[in-house]
Amino acid sequence: MADLTDLIKISRKYGSDPAYLLAGGGNTSMKEDGVLYVKASGFALSDITEEGFVRMNLSAMGEIWNKNYPEESAAREAEILKDMMASRLEGEVGRPSVEALLHSNINGRIVVHTHPALVNGMTCGKDGEKICKELFGDKALWVDSVNPGFILAKTIRTAVEKHMEGGLPAPEMIFLQNHGLFVGADTVTEIEDIHSGMMKKLAAYIKREPAVDEVPLPAAFLADFSDIASKAYGKKMEVCGVATTEVLIYAESKNSFAPLALPFNPDQIVYSGPGPLRLDKIEDLSSELNTFMDRWGKIPQGVLIKDIGLFSVGDTARKAATALALVLDSIKIAVYSESFGGPNPMTEDQIIFIRDWEVESFRAKVQ
Ligand SMILES: [Zn+2]
Questions:
Q1: What does pTM read for this prediction?
Q2: Residues 337 and 361 placed together within one structural domain of the fold
Q3: Of residues 339 and 226, which shows the higher confidence score?
Q4: Is the separation of the CB atoms in 312 and 240 below 8 Å?
Q5: What is the 72 CA–ligand 1 centroid distance (Å)?
Q6: Comparing 301 with 117, which gets the higher pLDDT?
Q7: Which of 141, 209, 356, 366 is buried most, with the most CB atoms less than 10 Å from its CB?
Q8: Measured in angstroms, how far is the CA atom of residue 305 from the centroid of ligand 1?
């Protein structure tokens, strides 16, 4: 076993910083002596230990590029998952992160993948690509939104090759539209410098910060919401609630809510559903819930109520809290995206792909 001190240190650092990651999302890896140590599904980076990494044979993973897989996405992803599991070193029991194949292809000994709201303001902005080039030049690679899994790994592999064709070094930062960021480098210090330099540039560029000051919720509203939600959802639901100036701005009208109506990134769908619901008044919950269910086949886990605040529901208090954090994150992304040409959410096809993807339902279950 290699010394994983560097990997554990950097994983915990970004995993416990909400400016970079929420809800146990993100993943990291290290390459050493032909072995990829990559985060296993079901572990959070914030308190990860050696146990949280799966050891994989890099040359066995490389064989995946030489194979032909079915065109149909579910059959293809199932077969690739099988090959990924078979690429683990003997005795490994963990399930490699869904992004493991991608990690194996990114230059640098250490690779860190995060979803910072500030970064996603750019990756979810209509002019994100253009501004990314202006701010980061050849040090960055922009990758348009594609379905995750094999297609994403392949798209990045091809884009990196193309980037390096003219003699450029490998990109330090890879920005994925409607998703997040990959950073690859050889040392912990380099990884930290790239992240902090990038965050400083983005922070200096944005025109407005979200107004996160808390506004008190009406007395007993949370208890009322809990009763109404449990009735409407047909089972006892745990609830969370919060109001901020920004939440109330988005909750004000159908128009002001529009930037939040569709999700910005896959994590939002996995942990808080295909978008929050907005109500003029709490009494509308049952009927609006039905409309949402008819459209998406899933319950909304976040509910914005005009003049009141934001609420979330879940089977457990932890799930409700996670859903709330993800909706608050999408509000930040929406505000930041104003500085990058305005919000550009995921498309309906992409939303449905994530909703139905077995890998993602595995993640949600583990959480
Ligand atoms: Zn991700």
A1: 0.92
A2: yes
A3: 339
A4: yes
A5: 23
A6: 117
A7: 141
A8: 29
Structural domain harbouring 348: 221-366
Q: Rounded to an integer, what distance in angstroms lies between the CA atom of residue 8 and that of residue 29?
A: 9
Give me ligand 1 centre to Cα 165, in Å: 27
Q: How many CB atoms lie within 10 A of CB 223?
A: 10
The pair of structure tokens assigned to 226 is 């809990």
Determine whether 236 is exposed, middle or buried from the number of CB atoms within 10 Å of its CB (0-12, 13-18, 19+).
exposed
Instruction: Report CA(99)–ligand 1 centroid distance (Å).
Output: 7
Q: What distance in angstroms lies between residue 225's CA and the mean position of ligand 1's atoms?
A: 32
In CATH, what number is assigned to the domain containing residue 233?
3.40.225.10
Q: Ligand 1 centre and the CA of 294: distance in Å?
A: 28
Report if residue 212 sits inside a domain. Answer: no
Q: In angstroms, what is the span from residue 204 Cα to ligand 1's centroid? A: 25
Is residue 210 a part of any domain in this protein? Answer: no
Domains in the chain: how many in total? 2
Cα-to-centroid distance, 267 and ligand 1 (Å): 7
| Alpha carbons 149 and 98: distance in angstroms, whole number | 6
User: 27 C-alpha vs ligand 1 centroid, how far in Å?
Assistant: 7
Pair 121, 79 in one domain? yes
> How far is the centre of ligand 1, averaged over its atoms, from the C-alpha of 223 (Å)?
35
Q: Ligand 1 centre from 26 Cα, in Å?
A: 5
Pair 326, 46: CB distance under 8 Å:
no
Residue recorded with tokens 């109404």: 228
* Alpha carbon of 162 to ligand 1 centroid (Å): 23
User: What is the 148 CA–ligand 1 centroid distance (Å)?
Assistant: 9
How many whole angstroms separate alpha carbon 100 and alpha carbon 358? 16
Residue length, the chain? 367
| Ligand 1 centroid from CA 341, angstroms | 23
Phi, then psi, of 352 in degrees rounded to 5: -70, -35
Confidence at residue 190, expressed as pLDDT on a 0 to 100 scale: 97
Instruction: Out of 6-10, 22-26, 122-126, pick the least confident.
Output: 22-26
The angle formed by the CA atoms of residues 36, 350 and 162, to the nearest 5 degrees, is 50
What whole-number distance in Å separates Cα of residue 255 and Cα of residue 111?
40
